[in-house]
Amino acid sequence: MHSFLVAFLEGGRRRSRRLLLATGACLVWSTVAHAGEREQVVLQLKHTHQFQFAGYYAALEKGFYREAGLDVTILEGADGDAPERAVLSGRAQFGTGSSTLLLSRLSGKPVVVLAVVFQHSPYAMAMRQQGTVPDIRRIVGGKVMLGPKTDQLNQADELVAYLRKQGVAPERLQRLEHSYNPEDLIKGRVDAMSIYTTNEPDYLDRAGFPYDIHTPRSAGIDFYGDNLFTSEHEISAHPERVKAFRAASMRGWQYAMSHQEEMVDLILSKYSQKHDRQHLLYEARQMVPLVQPVLVEVGYMNPDRWQHIADVYTDLGQLPRGVSFDGFLYNTDNAPNLVWLYRILGIAATLLLLGAGVHMALLARERKRAAEAIRKGEERFRTMFEAAPMGIALIEPVTGTFIDVNPRGLEIAGRPAGPTGGCSWTDLIHPDDLPECLLQLRRLQEREIAGFRVTLRLLRPDEATVWVEVSVVPVDADKPGPRLKLCMIEDVTDQKETEALIWQQANFDPLTQLPNRRMFLDRLQQAIVKSRRDGSRIAILFIDLDHFKEVNDTLGHHQGDVLLIEAARRIGTCVRASDTVARLGGDEFTVILPALEDAERVDHIAQNILDGLLAPFTLDQEQAFVSASIGITLYPDDAASVDDLLKHADQAMYAAKGAGRNRFSYFTPALQVAALNRMRLTNDLRSAIKGEQLKLYFQPIVHLGTGAIHKAEALLRWEHPQRGLVSPLEFIPLAESSGLIVDIGQWVFDESLRWVRRWRQDIHPEFQVSLNQSPVEFQREGGTYDVWLRALRQLGVPGQAIVVEITEGLLLDASAMVTDKLLQLRDAGIQVALDDFGTGYSSLSYLNKFDIDYLKIDRSFTRNLAPDSSDMALSEAIIVMAHKLGLSVIAEGVETAEQRDLLAAAGCDYGQGYLFARPMPVEAFDALLQSHVAPAED
Fold first, then answer.
1. Choosing a second label site near 850 at 20 to 30 A (CA), which of 41, 215, 341, 793?
2. Dist CA 257 CA 55 (whole Å)
3. Residues of the signal sequence (predicted)?
4. pLDDT tens, position by position, 55-103
């Protein structure tokens, strides 16, 4: 009996309400069951279809309205006060509205709120993120959209109250008509706008726009959001219909909030496809903390909250103080069921008297049990406080001294265990982080914010720095005056160091520690933005080190890295601290010179860089010498975009290389034209082989002792269909850079092999054709002469029919690849000629190390041959040296009989030049051989 009485007393009120609701529901069901057909009602929404109204869709689609005997039509709204107009005119029986319904009621309009759906208003202000501390006061004097100026039911009221409380008078704002288009905020057409936090942040996030949200709740202004309402006439004329509609609607909201994905699919299939699925799911998730379906019964409304809303309107001057809003809130326990309530209250009063004695008897025992529970609770709290994995500190509100700190907090701060004395927590904070922390503490003390979270640095006694994330909340939030502060401290030093390392690796070159391509492009873009703003100019220098590859190949990549580090240092000493030096990769560097006042200063800096790089680089026990080629382009003179600026600087750099290196060159439109011509010519070259545009020319190599022609050099010509004959000096570099040189070289070999086979049969059995091989072709990775050797075997031509001409520069590369290829040529019987001998890296060690058969004296010696001249002496020395090494000598550029006679007298074996014949098409050369019977060689 005692147990029954206690339980009954504790739950009497809840049981009374449930019994009353159950009885009312039975009455409604009974009424509907006898009605025979469903009643027609209209629900007017305040906006277009979206998840904001999902509960009503659920009640309709899941049959909750049908079970209540209702046939419901849901209409979209064109503006915020459409529901009020529709309900008061009778076009709709129910509508959805904001908390401004209270103003309508108190202005004489007979509206009645049936249920609250949003326990907290979603209205807020959004503005561009500026700095680390959000501050709504930055919008003073700015352009702001608060809502439609002509719409009486809008969010401006609670936002105006919030702004006033934050010290921002609406009169100091430039208020614009609301467009409800987030692009206005993103594009900077307004400084702030009111938004619905359930959906509009998704638009800003998708645009990558940095923003801050300021909600009235942070200042203690807590309005209700969407409310279901009707009219007094509907309640008096159809009380059961109102009750049934409200119950079915709230049932629909419970279903919608627990079946979000199903409701999103329903909206997309039956109501609206204005928003995509991801956006609707975002809205559903954002509504959960506002509707609070788990913590609060959907539809619940508190008269005290409505009084709070009325007080805010009073402060705004829109309502008189002490106004009453009786009849505004719907009473779910009204009308026919009050008699049951009275009976239950009577029984409860009787039982209350009977249970009073039991209650008094149990009170003493309950107090004892409560005291024990408090003791154990304090003990558990102390245990958790001491053993917590994060630092916890209790701080005195005025002085900031520690009242209590757990062991983990002392460990993070690097303090010994024991009393903290008079130590203030601000004494531990890094000076650079202290102003921000003090600002947040002031705002917390003045109750502008409910708490804050900040990342800062603490200084330990050993002068070490530790990064921590601190959360600060007041312990006694309801207490007037200064409040104790509870700090939760987490060590995030490792996380910060990892983030710093990732940022460093993403933005800086690991070798030179200069900005990499990513940061270079970012800084260049920033410089361009500033230049557009203040009208200044920018210079971009594109620097490429000359002959760096030779250093890498001869001294190794490690010494090459040492050179790059020193080159970066030297370049950095030539510019201002405000300039940017970056390494794009390899041996390419760039310099950004912003805010140029004197264009001549660019010449001075570029020349200083050239001079600085010319000095020798000490690499271990060796010295290396490099120079630089610099391309310069100016913004906005040469281009308006980053891509075009870099492209033009690169073209100017190649122009500097082409002009002889160790110099700088400015971009000119002619360089762009030349680059386009090279691109078009390269494209034409790709079809030259298949289009039979390549032609083979031959120039005879004459035996100086007998005049016999048993050798010839194959020379390539390109007969372009529009441009005519294109010089090899123009198209061979393009073929090398594009990789087409490999296919072209194979075509030259095939054609030469076909003709040399014929000439060995018809002219002389030991006839030879010399083929020039490009360094790019010779050094390609994986390239061998297997294809050549198969072709020789298939045609029955010995390897001795071919001579491969290479340059001395190839012999600098002492890699196994070069040696293997030369050995493969030797094993196949193919001879090797060293072209342009005497103009490059001549060295007896090369001739001794590699299998070379011919030396070709460069035409620069032959051109000026005269008795007793230095060129004659050098030529004689080359001939004697070659013969001593068992090599034959071919002199190029023989144009006069005197040159021929001098070379023959010096013992030169062969001559080649215009004296004997110019290069001619293969058919003409074949005819020359057929008509010229050469005497046998000695």
1. 793
2. 8
3. none
4. 999 999 999 999 999 999 999 987 778 898 999 999 999 999 888 888 8
Residue 89 CA to its chain's centroid (Å):
54
Tokens of 385: 């406080």
Beta strand extents in 236-350 (DSSP E only): none
Bridge partners (DSSP) of residue 888 are 854
Structure tokens at 911: 């001559």
pLDDT of residue 136: 86
State pLDDT tens for residues 331-381.
Answer: 866 544 444 444 555 566 566 666 665 666 666 676 667 666 666 665 665
Residues in Cβ contact with 494 at an 8 Å cutoff, skipping those fewer than 6 apart: none
Write the burial class of residue 651 (CB in 10 Å: 0-12 exposed, 13-18 middle, 19+ buried). Answer: buried
* Two tokens, residue 878: 């080359």
Please report which residue ranges of 739-815 form alpha helices under DSSP H: 741-762, 775-779, 786-795
In angstroms, the CA 907 to CA 251 distance is 113
Return the ∠ at Cα 817 (arms to 812 and 822), rounded to 5°.
Answer: 80
**Residue in the block written with tokens 């010179």:** 593
Residue-wise pLDDT for 877-931, tens only, equals 999 999 998 999 999 999 999 999 999 999 999 999 999 999 999 999 999 898 8
Residue carrying the six token digits 């645009």: 207
330: which DSSP letter?
A: -
Contact 95, 84 (CB under 8 A): yes
Average pLDDT, the chain: 82
Under a CB-based contact definition with an 8 Å cutoff, are residues 921 and 712 in contact?
no
Position of tokens 């002009």?
Answer: 659
Tallying the residues shown for the chain, one arrives at 938
Region of residue 91 (phi > 0: left; psi between -120 and 50: alpha; otherwise: beta): alpha
Q: Which two tokens stand for residue 795?
A: 């045609």
* β-sheet bridge partners, residue 663: 629
Write the CA distances from 925 to 157, 240, 478, 713, 894, integer angstroms. 99, 114, 108, 11, 18
Closest CA to 418 of 400, 404, 401, 399: 404
Residue 775 confidence (pLDDT): 78
d(CA 196, CA 852): 84
- Burial track 175-194 (b if 16+ CB lie within 10 A, e otherwise): beebeeebebbbeeebbbbb
> Model's pTM, two decimal places?
0.42
- Amino acid symbol at 350: T
Alpha-carbon distance of 144 to 127, in angstroms, equals 9
Instruction: Burial-class residue 918 by CB neighbours within 10 Å (0-12, 13-18, 19+).
Output: exposed
Q: Is pLDDT above 90 for 765?
A: yes
